[in-house]
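Example 3.2
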Amino acid sequence: MPTKKVINVSTKGGDDGSSGLIDGVRLPKSSHIFQVLGDVDELNSWLGYSLVMLSVKLPEQSAALRHAQKNLYLLSALIAQADPKKVSVAREELTILEKNSLYLQKSMKADWTQSFLYPGGTETAARLDIARTVCRRCERSMVALSQEQRIPGIALQYLNRLSDYLYVLRCFVNFKEGYQEAQFDIK
């Protein structure tokens, strides 16, 4: 039986507390760029966790989230100094998120945005709520990084649109599953 060549994941290159970017530059793991990359990775993981349930209930939206995961990998590559001539996120991706969000909004009751809603509801919606808040943290991290280095504008725009979409999707999931939203009343 032929032996399968295994690539060892443990390179030991980070044992000194540094990590490398795509362009070969090594920086301390405490560098802000790695905070951003970690936040995006965490967001992608939460989307994957949300997909576990969403793929069974709403396959069309599941495909949209899987597509968003691909875009997050591309954004990470751009942040990690990939060649923008080889790696990019098209501006049309913003339009796709906006159209998908609008479609979901039109599918719900007309007054669905009239109140502040407590996070949660169904398990799927609760997972999406966490993904949404992690997406907002990614956005804040990226804004802070943009004060230190140039960030492609599409990165911030995409995260902003994605968090909006995740909120609408969370509301849509609760709506489709018949969950009565718990509304926050200021009074």
